[in-house]
Amino acid sequence: MHMLSKNPLRIALAAAVFALGAGSAFAQTVKVGVVNTYSGPTATLGEYIDKGIKLYTKLNADKLPAGVKVELVIRDDGGPNPDKAKQLAQELIVRDKVQILTGVVWTPNAIAIAPLTREAKVPFVIMNAGGSVITTMSPYIARTSFTLWQSAYPLGQWAAKKYKRAYIAVSDFTPGHDSEEAFEKGFVAGGGQISGKVRMPLANPDFVPFMQRAKDAKPEVLFGFIPAGRQAAQIMKAFGDLGLDKAGIKFIGTGDITTDEELPNMGDVPLGVVTSHHYSAAADRPANKAFVAAWKKEYGANSTPNFLGVAAYDGMDAIYTAIREQAGKIDPDKTMDILKNYKNANSPRGPISIDPATRDIVQNEYIREVRKVGGQLANVELETIPNVKDQWKELNNKR
Q: Which CATH number is 51's domain given?
């Protein structure tokens, strides 16, 4: 036996078997559940999240520790459907045993999922849903997208310096309510008056009667919020068809009303429209130019990234950071500690971080104006409001 154990071939085989065993023992798959909108009338919103996730994972496989891989377990919520979203998240947690949840276009869906993350202790990285209250509903939520208070409140402050009377038109769901309250608070605090306001149906709205109400109120400025996507082109068409611009009414809003990918579908109506937002595909930051170039290389010259794509891209960077710092062995509380302290000085949208106290995004807000650049409409950044936190939490001391 002693002589056999010294046999070089036997030693080599034993070493190979041990190496194979060790490789399988140390191989680690991190399962990330993605709840996103892939079907229904708002599927274009989910498409950009999907593209942002997949572009990041393709370009950054080398940022995972050796022997660690990420498995995306993807589910379709079909749009704003809280019951469906909750069911999918529950299945991902219980049956598929995902270690991290992410995605989610819609605030009502995120609100439905939030209690599950608290009960199961599953970290949840929100890539879009912008209702301020969501992150207060579970300590296992971090957000890499935005809140409507971040953009609408400073826009109200900005508008109050230029206009005295404003009308507010928003979609009738939580982010719309947030944007309405935020703009009004900022505008009135600056000395402005609200001429009237209206909430529009979230699903399949006809914007014409609401734009007519705004026109009849004769404000100097109309503030609008809709959930981006194709509704942006539809509300802009109603604004132009009813001649609000010719009536001397300026159109402003969150970046959703001039979202980058819909600008080519709007004609010249949005020229001069001012928005407050955290991202523009036209920004000349080197990191953004590289991001846009990579996006177009992957998805075609006619495809333009938008704020959903960027938030998904950055969300995956936060997730990869948590995986990397734990060498692929995911502990929910350690993951949240890492996410709470996540920073990226070189995001395509500028420097971003997560506020450790609220687990919400901190980022620049840009005052932009739609102009023609090289013959194409673009959101040109004019002013930068640096390092903006969620103003709802700041003003109401919410954590």
A: 3.40.50.2300
Report how many domains make up the chain.
2
In angstroms and rounded to an integer, the radius of gyration of the C-alpha atoms of the chain is 24
pTM of the model: 0.90
Residue 10: inside a domain, yes or no?
Answer: no
Give the rounded distance of the alpha carbon of 355 from its chain centre. 16
b/e code 42-71 from CB counts within 10 Å (16+ = b): bbbbbbbbbbbbbbbbeeeeeebbeebebe
Question: Quick check: is 8 in a domain?
Answer: no
CB 33 within 8 A of CB 85: no
With a CB cutoff of 8 Å and minimum separation 6, the contacts of 264 are: 376, 377
Residues of 116-134 as b/e, b for ≥16 C-beta within 10 angstroms? Answer: bbeebebbbbbbbbbbbbb
d(CA 300, CA 306): 14
pLDDT mean by block of 10 residues, the chain; 399 residues: 39 36 58 98 96 98 95 98 98 98 98 98 98 97 97 98 98 96 98 97 94 97 94 96 97 96 94 97 96 98 96 98 97 98 98 98 98 95 97 92
| pLDDT at residue 27 in the model | 63
| CB contact at 8 A, 53 and 309 | no
The predicted-structure confidence for 253-282, as pLDDT tens digits, reads as follows 999 999 999 999 999 999 999 999 999 999
Q: Is residue 12 part of a domain?
A: no
Question: CA distances (Å), 70 to each of 24, 53, 286, 334, in order?
Answer: 16, 12, 28, 18
**Most distant CA pair in the chain: distance in Å?**
100
207 in Cβ contact with 181 (< 8 Å) = no
